[in-house]
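[job 0412] stage=fold_complex status=start
inputs:
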Amino acid sequence: MPVPKISRRQFLQGCSAAIASMAGARLTNLAFAKQDNPSDTLVVVFLRGGWDALNVVPPLQGDDRGFYEKARPDIKISDLLTLNDQFGLHPALAPLHELYQAGKMGVVHAVGLDHDTRSHFDAQEYIELGTPGSKNTTSGWITRHLQETGVSSILPVVSTAGQPTSLLNFVPTVNVNSPSDFSQWGNDLLASQQTALRQMYQGESLLHRAGARTLDALNIVSPLVNQEYQPSNGAFYNDDELGQQLKTIARMIKLEAGLRVAAVDFGGWDTHEYETDGNGGYIGDLLGQLASGLSNFYLDLDSGYTDRLSVVVISEFGRRLVQNESYGTDHGHGSVMLALGGNVNGGQVYGKWPGLNNDQLYDHADLAVTTDYRQILSELLSTRLGNSNIESVFPGFSGNYDPLGLFR
Amino acid sequence: MAFQQRTKFTRRDFLKLGGSLATASLLAACQPNAETPVPTSPVSSSGDVSLPEPSISLPPVPLAVLALGRMSFGIRPGDIEAFNALGGNDDERLRAYVQQQLNPDSIDDSDFESRYNAAGFQALHKSHEQLYSEHIANNAYDPNDDAYWEWYSLPTYELVDATLLRAVHSKKQLAEMLADFWHNHFNIFFWQDDGVPLLVSYNRDVLRKHMLGNFRQMLEAVATHPSMLYYLNQNNSSDAGPNENFARELFELHTLGAENYLGVRDPNTVEKDANGVSVGYVDNDVYEAARCLTGWRIDDDLGEWEDGIEKTGNFIFYKPWHDRFNKLVLGKYIPADQPDMQDGKDVLDLLAYHPGTARHIARKLCRRFISDLPSDSVVAAAAATFTEFRDAPDQLKRVMETILLSDEFKQSWGQKIKRPFEACISIMRALNSDFTRIPGGVAWMLSLMGQPLFERRSPDGYPDVKEAWANSMSLLYRWNFAVGIAENWLNDDDTGLKIQTDVYNQTPPEIRTAEALADFWINRILGRPLSDADRNAVIAVMAQEYGTQESLPDDHVGYVLPAMIEVILMSPDFQWK
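[job 0412] stage=fold_complex status=done
writing structure:
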């Protein structure tokens, strides 16, 4: 597939106006006011390692079920939760199946990159930069979206995932694992130390801007530190990485401090060996964590926030159809994306199914990609995030934009 | 072989433990997870790359500050004076310092050695076979008992402690920087499923043994070490079912780098160089190399019913698993039925001697020791040394010499910021913190900053560009670490482990005004002045309600001095390198 090329010049021109508009975003007014947030809060959950889409949403019946079972005699998943007459959901995802049935979650199959790579690092970068085929892009796709729409809130972006590439060069990102972690140590001289730090972190370098942003964020988050958090609707967050990240984000959303984007990482999906044990085992455990985390997050926010919430779950690629000799699967191509939110047209499986017959596979080995991941994100941008300038976020892609109808 | 026969424990077994071992997954979430893109095109000029960061120009610093900032984990009291005594001018001093540091065996390291001997490490002296036998194969405890896992993980916890001790107290600073570089280059995640205790021998017998030696030899040592074979699934790779994971990272990370990856393509269409070797690699090369490497495995209990398996935990070439037929790698024909291991060695030769590998390794070293975006000229110079001395026993030492004595090394201050590991160590060095066995809080804080030692999950190693580290959590915990050290808040009452820092007694008693105290500590920590505005900010912290030139009472100095010093350690100036 041809890869659209953009010149660096075009790229920088596109960004410059937005960068200028951001110059005023260095907030000194830390009043705890309700911020005007014109669009949904976007939560991106990135499953690092390449999740095994064919074991997450396996074929339910017919020829493709036959190809699937033949290719995966030891690691096939059975007792699926029915999605439609063609596909089922891994039984460990039962809590998400409920959201699917309630119309709050949609599934996109055979989705991914229009670029040939089976490298984790290339694929993650291409996806997060939003420029498949080009790794020299100097900002992430979310960065360009926020530059395009402008940012005016105190707490526009929270990442529990360090600084993911999708937010490359978006300095206002605040990295928070949990509110109690995000506090500055000191004694009664702390205020005078902070005055000195304010002076020292004036400046335009990446480091200076990060320091000033840290001081701003401390002012917002520190009041939460000693508060016990009570999730709504009886939601319960597991004490695992994902649960704790999602709990933090729920708290940040409820602050109503204008959170626009939250980035979450959930790793461990590189299942080269001993992937399953019946319907349980390694990947069953991971999926169980994912389902528990997301369903409780949704339940917690189903207290007046889900109409302004869009969650997407994405991984860098799927895995090979045929199991390997280590009872795992090697790097593949087509994958599955999930979307959750109050304005998702849920309860459906989207995307054109390419089939699992050998000549239907990518490179005679992997599920083919029939939907570019940028279709879903572009639709999200224009439908839910108030950004109709898709070209500014995914340069060279807007001509191919053809929404699936996943979002209202 | 069925699943049920697998006797090995998994990562999840660790996670079940909680308690003493709970750091396994602790906050891995705050690690930057994707490698931040860096320009990798071998033909681009540095002028092609412009980060959105406005170009900032920092005032030049004394060469001693620059050299110690890049070749060591930070300036200790006395380091600048010692550097300046090495010669009559900057060039002489730099040459002498580089020579000294590139010959670590010549350095008197008795202070470190006495601390190391006092630290009471139980497992670090053990041979690879002992580690395997005593901590894996014959662990005497019940696997349902925490003691089993404590014994299992003890060697690697000791390695973490010893690495922190070395970084702070050893005078062989460049060696420590290189050990850190090469671990990240040939990265292994500490808590990989199998073989955790073997990280000790990997660090000692592979990385440290070869890091100033020969790359080709190092590469083979890596490719035959059980830690790597476990980590990248090479241990399961057989002719019947080759596992491509190790082969792929061998190309993409260890040697040629992604910059030389040409994607999923017909290998016949790839251009060849004068020696008939492909200029870059495609997926087919990865698969063919994986076939070449089948049978490179560990003599463990994976298949105890097989002949010739003794469970020593050593590397073996297991012929029954080797794919004996001919292969084609990077355009080179590898005939069938070669002698044992020859197919794999041919692959390592092709990769280690490829010009793309020379550039990739040179660029990474230049990025580590010079700048996030080193110029193509210095990369080319280092790559030329790498290639010219490809068979020399001191190839990598010569490459380091080329880099450290380059003009660009001397002319590029402030184009990097310290990574969290360096930031923490440099705080302890700056304040002369005293410890033998470091309290666990230090490693915990490194986790919060996103760089727990040996815990990068993915094989690419921690990112080495400032974009990955100029974030709130990473910065906030540097600040908190400065407080934790200066206020002695990191002592561990449960274990009795202490890290003691006494800034009051390191301050001459005749210095008592806020201005003089600020100037003394700014110079002591940074080796250079701060801007007037920043200096005034430091003075204001010290003075509080007193005048800046007023003589301060001792109790005020005792209480406020740590807070002032913390501010210097929190400053942007302390983060540049």
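[job 0412] summary: The two ends of chain B are 53 Å apart (CA to CA).
[job 0412] exit 0
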